[in-house]
Amino acid sequence: MTKELIQGNEAAVRGAINAGCNFFAGYPITPSSEIAHGMAELLPKFNGVFVQMEDEIASISAAIGASMAGAKAMTATSGPGFSLMQESIGYAAITETPVIIYNVMRVGPSTGIPTAPSQGDVMQARYGSHGDYPIIVLSPATVEDMYHLTVEAFELAHKFSSPVTVLSDEIIGHMRESVTLPELGERIELPESENIIGIGRRMHRTGLAHNEHGLPTTDFKEYEGLIKRLFAKFDSFKPKVKVENGDADVIFIAYGSSYRSARRAVKILIGKGVDAGILKLETLFPFPEKEVRKISKKAERVIVPEMNMGQILREVERVCCCDVVGVSFFGSLIIPEVLAKKVEEML
Amino acid sequence: MIVAESPTHAYLTDNSINIRIAGRGGQGIIKAGLLLAEALVLEGKNVAQTQNYGPEARGGACRTDIVASLEEIDYPGLQRIDYLIVLDEGAYARYLPMLNERTIVIYDSDLVKSAKKGYGFPFTRISKDKFGSELFANMIALGAFVSLTDIVKPETLQHVIKKRMKNPEKNISAFRLGAEIAIAPEIITR
Known about the structure:
The complex is a heterodimer. In chain A, 39% of the residues lie in helices and 22% in strands. Chain A is α/β, with parallel strands linked by helices. In chain A, strands 2, 3, 4, 5, 6, 7, 8 and 13 form an eight-stranded mixed sheet that branches. Chain A has a five-stranded mixed sheet with strand order 10-12-11-14-15, with helices on both faces. Chain A has a two-stranded antiparallel ribbon with strand order 1-9. In chain A, helix 1 crosses helix 2, helix 1 packs parallel to helix 6 (143-160) and helix 3 packs parallel to helix 4 (79-94). The model of chain A has no long low-confidence stretch (mean pLDDT 96). By secondary structure, chain B is of the alpha/beta class. Chain B has a single domain (17-187), classed as Pyruvate-ferredoxin Oxidoreductase, domain 3 (3-Layer(aba) Sandwich). Chain B contains six helices and six strands, in the order E-H-E-E-E-H-E-E-H-H-H-H. In chain B, helix 2 (89-95) links the parallel strand 4 (81-86) and strand 5 (99-108). The longest helix of chain B has 16 residues, at 168-183. The two termini of chain B are 19 Å apart. The chains are: A alpha/beta, B alpha/beta. Chain A binds chain B through residues 3-5, 30, 113-115, 171, 174-178, 260-261, 263-264, 267-268, 271-272, 332-333, 335-337, and chain B through 9, 11-12, 34, 37-38, 40-41, 44-55, 73-77.
């Protein structure tokens, strides 16, 4: 394998195809459009189907339908489209349908700044649909991650029979990096997905609360059993984090493009004699509570840099047992020197 | 070879090359960056290329940044500007405060009137005269850049043009023209 220059969104496409994705429905939107472009070009060559739908509501609905019929299905969008998809993400969660939703975040709310990065959709990715439901949210920070976490998203979606959201951002999606990746078509064998409709038997799928036969129920006990079972499925889930200098006094907890800035800031601080380390969140939800709590036990201070007013910060604060400080940045890559200086001023 | 070094950030063992290409949407800024970035990868460098542009299809401010290093690139943004290729007055004015005394500036001498240092060539005018279109100014500028800096081998970049561009012959001849004008001192304006 030799190094090649590839864009984050292109790496996501390769990851999806190598993981066996054979259905993509979407509506192009900056900064995720290259995923739709790549899928339109490549899926037909890999016996898959690409459909450009009339909007994002239709896109995710088609992906859910395809998944129920046995396809490995995915859609991709950005903020405004992600908002439109929310109702159906809840439908995928309650019907336990594996589907991958890619959100390459841009500045919001509303149409925001289409070409600028943001991390404003973190809590929406977790709680965006109404009702009580669990969901998996992954966060790539490199072009390589865009490939590997896409593959992982397919594995997890089918293992847990659940929607999985990959929360990227404009920097990571549009960035090109030199990487060594498996080639396009180097198929990763995942467990066959089960087609639950279109097999010649009567069946029932509903967004209504349902009993174990899949039939609607208004019985509170049955509803409670359903929701508790949905959440309990994730008890065995192992969130992914990556730690460097985990024993340090000052620990950054970061994800997505903020991680890249924080990682450099750590080096700058170490150069200035500050004992600094970093924890990278590759899984945002279910939140890596144990891992974050553990690192906070040795730390004096935890810094959470984000391109928002402080979203994952709330989760970190919830589980940490030391000082936690959020640092907000907007609209472009966080400048490591500026971040390091802010941290120095706190010490 | 012209080596740009940073006077600041001495605490970082930083052997990276930081390049910014800037202009307006429609000038092929990001495409030029992509070709250069890919050539750097083919010559064994680790590379990160980012970009910044407005929602306009044409005319808006546009730039691309390339970091190349033999080491792993943690932060993909520019630490400083070692090389600036600039095809627009507004872009020059915007990034002027970021230039240091070692920054090498290569600019379109018709479009960046206020440039105070560096190497100016009328890339866009030459493109119009030789190819009947402004579209090749980016390739001519790349040719001049590569010839002036030796950052990548011209053959590597031509190989990438062949692979990535729809009209490789014309683009390669524009690239070669850029390389030629850069060594002919009479058209260096400053």
